[in-house]
Backbone:
């Protein structure tokens, strides 16, 4: 590579956009994995 004057192409770094150290809580598990219903739109 040096003899042919070939150089690598540098790309931009990936920016991390996820904040895993937030102070928000978790949603409550109100269904408790019970997905069966008596009628439509009742859960």
Residues:
């Amino acid at each position: 590579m040096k003899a042919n004057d070939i150089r690598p192409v540098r790309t931009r770094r990936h920016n991390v956009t996820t904040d895993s150290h937030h102070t928000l809580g978790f949603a409550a598990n109100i269904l408790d994995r019970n997905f069966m219903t008596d009628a439509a739109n009742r859960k």
The mean pLDDT is 86. The radius of gyration is 26 Å. Residues 19 and 32 are 27 Å apart (CA to CA).
